[in-house]
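Lab notebook, design round three. We kept the backbone fixed and only want residue identities now. Task for the bench partner: fill in a sequence for the structure below.
Input structure tokens:
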């Protein structure tokens, strides 16, 4: 998260850092709330991305199951990718990097 305080751009969000800048308690809490809000929005975006990616993986698996000439990857590879997608966001926490084919 990036913010401006006293005309200077900052990215540190630890309470100690914010206090050292001269922020009062209300300003520190405001930064903390914004940081939590942005983190929750990011997680929601990633969850939505996973849903879309799972739908695409299912389509690719069905293409292969139908012996369609457009099948470019093995079903095993696609199933492993689908599992990695399901494991990417667990209990509202992002685990590791975004899975890619």
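Proposed sequence:
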């Amino acid at each position: 998260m990036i913010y401006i305080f006293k005309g200077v751009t900052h990215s540190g969000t630890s309470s100690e850092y914010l206090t050292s800048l001269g922020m009062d308690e209300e300003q520190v809490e405001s930064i903390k709330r914004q940081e939590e809000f942005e983190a929750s929005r990011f997680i929601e975006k990633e969850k939505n991305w996973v849903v879309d990616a799972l739908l695409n993986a299912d389509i690719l698996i069905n293409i292969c199951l139908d012996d369609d000439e457009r099948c470019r990857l093995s079903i095993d590879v696609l199933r492993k990718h689908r599992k990695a997608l399901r494991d990417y966001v667990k209990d509202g926490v992002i685990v590791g990097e975004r899975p890619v084919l």
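Keep this in mind before ordering anything: Residues 3-94 form one domain.
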